[in-house]
Amino acid sequence: MSARKFPLACALLLAGCAVGPDYERPAMELPAAYPEQDVGATALRSDWWTLYDDPILDELVAAVLERNADIRLAVARIEEADANLRVANAAFLPEIDLGGNANRTRSSTTTVLPSPPGIPAVRNDVRLALSTSFELDFWGRLRRGVESVRAQMLATRYARDVVALTLQGLTAQAYFALRSIDAQIIVTRETMVTRDEALAYVRARAKGGVASELEVAQAEGAQADIATQLKDLQRQRALIEHQLAALTGRLDLVVAVGDLRTLPMPPLPPSGLPSALLERRPDIQRAEQQLVSANAQIGVAKAAMFPTISLTGFAGGESANLSTLLDNRNSGIWSVGFGLNLPLFDAGRYRALTDAAIARQHQAVASYQKAVETGFSEVADALVTVRLTASSEEDFRGSVAAARRGLRLSRMRYEAGYSPFLEVLDAQRTANTSELAALRNRQSLLSATVDLMKALGGGWSAERPSLKEDSVR
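-> structure tokens emitted (473 positions)
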């Protein structure tokens, strides 16, 4: 190797040196697929809430993403992380400062050592210079620092996705709860009409001497119960509407009355759903980037035990007169320096800092593992909940049909004098309870589908987006 190429080779070798471990994703032993797989055959989209085909829900989610304070806070944290990354990258380039000063001094002429002959007692000094300082990243301290900050920046972006996905789910579930209450109010009002008619019928029979005052009191109590139930449902609806107002940032929000029974069931993921889809979840991606950052910090801590090599210098002019300050021939000044700083005795401080960084990396590994295991469990739970809740739909329909038939038969038996009015009241309560339970089961099913889509990271797709695509979302 020639003498000219040797310094270049040394520089390239040192530039590629970075102490500390390179990142490797921890191995996780997970089943290849989830245990519950008979859940449909249509893929989901990332804008999963549109699958419910409800314009009001679409509008609410859009308002949440635009106006919610938690979203704005997450975006501000991304902006801060982006700025921190620019700061870290700037460390690779020298900082150049412009400094200047001007002063006028007078020396005493009566001291033991007066000024040399020819030097006036009153002097001017004007100085203007550019200075710089630059650390040579021999051990990769700056590069590991940038690696850590970049991972933190990506983690904040995934944290924003976590917040968005959580708020989307909360909005959808609150909306379904509101629509469930609307449907329950409709059923309750229909029941109230039935009980008003029953009360009028019993009162007419009592006037004719066919029914007793006990039956009238029982009918009046049943009517009061259903009126109380209606008011409680109206109170619940108002509270849920207030919750949606807070989520959307529109405190004057008023949601028109609807009906849960008109909402379609969304298509669900196909059979054989691979557990590798967990990588799409933003909370798992955030945990991995935090692990990447902690891993890089080990290199930063280790590099502190090696010499710090820096270059310094300045160039400018110094003169007694401003007019000759920029005369490079006579007034020019410059300096070039080389600095080396090596800790010789630190009482184990840097070793302890490295051990602390390693311990934080171990914590990040455990957090990543927990995030993956929690994600797998949430998907499996959501799948079984969707399957069993959906299978209950037919059971509830049969229960409602039987309760309505029982109510009709009890009325016929009462009117024919074969049974007391208490049997009618019991049939009314059973019918009302069955219809409300069926509506709540439908709400639970819709909420379970939301949980499934959240657990899958916002919808199913065949391919996982690349890290580059994720980082610009």
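The domain at 16-94+137-309+349-471 is CATH 1.20.1600.10 (Outer membrane efflux proteins (OEP)).
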